[in-house]
Design goal:
Helix content: 40-55%
Strand order of the largest sheet: 1-2-3
CATH architecture: 2-Layer Sandwich
Organism: Streptomyces asoensis
InterPro entries: Rv3655c/TadE, TadE-like_dom
Strand content: 15-25%
Protein name: TadE-like domain-containing protein
Number of strands: 3
Largest sheet: 3 strands, antiparallel
Keywords: Membrane, Transmembrane, Transmembrane helix
Length: 125
């Protein structure tokens, strides 16, 4: 019984350690997904580049690399990170989010909204 315990106990500890590391990797991946999406939303709203990076880095794991790009009417945010507790392992997490760029709002008091409202009222009668 003692010999069996001596063999099984290290295996159980190794298995538990692997489970904890797996959970850390999954948590970091979820943070990368959330960071990429938050950055893509900010970029789609056409926020300032510094604001986009600030929003993305606030959600991303510590030390993550953030890349923001624009391709036509789409913005792309890429977050690359290494899990914080696993710097010694060759694990690199990468997530990317794409969003359609929104058009800036028209200035308040413009005639566009009034003309549209007039057309809608005319049709309702």
């Amino acid at each position: 019984m003692t010999a069996e315990s001596a063999v099984v106990l290290p295996v159980l500890v190794l298995f538990a350690t692997a489970l904890v590391y797996g959970l850390l990797i999954m948590a970091a991946q979820i943070r990368c997904v959330d960071a990429a999406r938050a950055g893509a939303r900010a970029a789609a709203r056409q926020d300032a580049p510094e604001a986009i990076l600030e929003v993305t880095r606030a959600v991303a794991p510590q030390g993550a690399e953030v890349t923001v790009g624009r391709e036509g009417d789409q913005v792309r945010v890429v977050v690359v990170a290494r899990p914080p507790a696993l710097r010694v392992l060759p694990v690199e997490l990468r997530e990317e989010a794409v969003a359609a760029a929104e058009e800036p709002l028209a200035p308040a008091g413009g005639t566009t909204g009034a003309a549209t409202a007039g057309k809608n009222e005319g049709r309702a009668r």
